[in-house]
Amino acid sequence: NWIFTGTDEPQVLFSGGVRFFGERLAVDLALFSSEEFFEADSGFPFVPWVDFSVFFGR
Question: Which of the four pLDDT bands, split at 50, 70 and 90, describes residue 41?
Answer without folding.
Answer: confident
